[in-house]
Design a protein that fits this description.
Number of helices: 3
Largest sheet: 3 strands, antiparallel
Distance between the termini: 82 Å
Order of helices and strands: EEEHHH
Radius of gyration: 33 Å
Number of strands: 3
Structural class: alpha+beta
Helix content: 55-70%
């Protein structure tokens, strides 16, 4: 038999051809509970990073197509009659200068 359960978390393991040794196969080993906490934090950070990256990619792709230039917005306001000829020309000149 390769593994023999002696007590909780410790197993007698066949190491070599004729060698046997005790190993903590089921426990946290030398790290203890801190190792488990750090491993959990590591995976949480990885998952949060992936979710953030996917969200960022989606925002970049959707915002690139729906943005209007200031000149287009000015043209729309003029077409709707929200501003008069004089205001339109003044704002247009200012946009084209800067």
């Amino acid at each position: 038999m390769m593994f023999e359960n002696i007590n909780a978390g410790r197993f007698l393991v066949h190491v070599g051809e004729t060698e046997w040794g005790w190993h903590d196969m089921m426990g946290f080993g030398y790290f203890g509970i801190f190792g488990a906490i750090f491993m959990l934090l590591f995976w949480v950070a990885i998952i949060v990073g992936v979710v953030w990256f996917i969200k960022w990619i989606i925002e970049q792709s959707s915002s690139g197509t729906s943005k209007k230039s200031a000149l287009e917005i000015l043209d729309e306001k003029y077409a709707r009659g929200e501003i008069d000829d004089e205001e339109y020309e003044r704002r247009k000149r200012k946009l084209l200068e800067g």
